[in-house]
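Entry 14. Structure prediction run on the chain below.
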Amino acid sequence: MSAAAFFLFTLIYFSSSCCSATRFQHRHRYLEKELMIALASKIGINYGRQGNDLPSPYQSINFIKSIKAGHVKLYDADPETLTLLSHTNLYVSITVHNNQITSLGTNQTAAEDWVNTNILPYYPQTQIRFVLVGNEILSIQDRNVTANLVPAMRKIVDALRAQGIHNIKVGTSLPMDSLRSTFPPSNSTFREDIAGPFMLPLLKFLNGTNSYFFINLQPYYRWLKNPMNNTSLDFALFQENSTYTDPHTGLVYHNLVDQMLDSVIFAMTKLGYPHIRIAISETGWPNSGDIDEPGANILNAATYNRNLIKKMTAIPPIGTPARPGLPIPTFVFSLFNENQKSGSGTQRHWGILHPDGTPIYDIDFTGQKPLSGFNALPKPTNNVPYKGQVWCVPVEGASEAALEEALRMACGRSNTTCAALAPGKECYDPVSIYWHARYAVSSYWAQFRTQNVGCYFNGLAHETTTNPGNGRCKFPSVTL
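Output returned:
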C-alpha cells in the first residue's frame, strides 16, 4: 500500500470512528432526555407502611393503579411488593435502608450482593428506575453513615453497570433543612457543616452519573412557621393570587414549591454544579393534624395535590423560574394515612386513601381532569391558628391495661407531674385508672410539650379544647 493510500485509509477509518462515537453520544443524550421526560410525566406516589390497619401489598398496588399513578416509591425493597409490581407498567423506586449504608459503602461485594438480591430477581419485568440510598440521612448522628453515603452509591452504580444496567439512576433523599437559607431563592446556600464534606462529593457523584438531586419538599411546614404573615396560604397552595419577585434575580414566583425548588438550584450552583437535575421525592399536604397545626385539612390537601399534579404533568413541562421547561419527577406523599408514625398529628395524616381504598378526597394523577370537575369539599375551620386552652386526654375506648401503662410512664419521669393525684390531693378522687390516667396524660404533655413530647402516646391520646377537669381538680393545659 502506498503512503498516500495508507493516509487516505487512515483518514477514512478515524473519520468513521469519530462519526460513530458522535452518533452514539447524540443517541445516548436523546435516550437520556426521553427517559427524563417519561419519568417526569408520570406522577409517583409514596407507599409507606407504618400502620396497623393497612391493606396487603396486593390490594395496595391495585389501589395505586386505580388512582392512575405512574410511579411508586417504596421505603424498602420488599420482595413481595416488587414481585407484584412486575408487568404493571408502573415505574418503581426502591430504597436502601439507612442502616445498610455503611456496609455497602465499605465493601463492593456487599453492594453487588444487594443488587443481586434486590434488583436482579425482578428487573426488568418490574420497571425499577431509581435506587435511593437512605432517606434523610442527615438526621442520623452516626458519622459513619454520612461518610459512606457516596461510596455506597458509587458501588451500587458499579454493580449495576457490571450487570449491563444503565437505566436505573442512583440518588438519595434529602430534606429542605440541608439548606442554611432559602429566602430569597437566590440567597440560598447549603449548611456550612455539610457543604464541603458532604454536599460537594454528593453533587460530584450526581453530576458524573447524570442522576437527580432528590428533595423532600413540604411547603406546609414552611407555611406553618408563620401562617399569618410571610407566606400566604394561597401562595403555598398554587392558587396564584399572589406573587413574589426575587430582588436579586428579578425572577417572579407564583407558588411556594417553585421558590423552594429554585432555592436548591441556587445552592447547587454556588458549589459549582448548576446543571444537576432535580426530583421531588416527597411532597404533599396533611389532611388533618393537631389543634396547634392550622391549615391541615382535607380541602387544603386536595387543593395542593391537584394543583401540584396539574403543574408537573403539563406538556410541554413548565419547570421553575430559574429552569423553565425542566421536567421534574415528582412523588406525592403519601398513599395512606399511617397511624403508627410518631410525632405530631400531621405525621399520621398525609394519605390520599383510606385503608379500604376509598379516597379521602378525589384526585387525578394523570393531571387531565379539570380542577372544576372535582366534587366540592367542606370549607375548613382551621386555616387560622387556634387561640385558647388545649388539653391532652385518652381516646375513647382505650383499654385499662394501656391506660395503666400510660399512667405509669407519665408519672415516672417527674415527681411534680402527678403530685395532684396523691391521696388527699385535689385530683385523687375518683380513684380509678381512667381518671388518674386522664389527668396524668394531660399533665405530662403540658409539662414536657416544649421538649417535643406530643399528645399521642402510641395512639392512646389526642388533643381537645374541652376542659376535662372539674371544679375541684384543674387539669394542666397548654395555652395557644
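DSSP finds 14 helices and 15 strands in the chain.
Filed with the rest of this week's runs.
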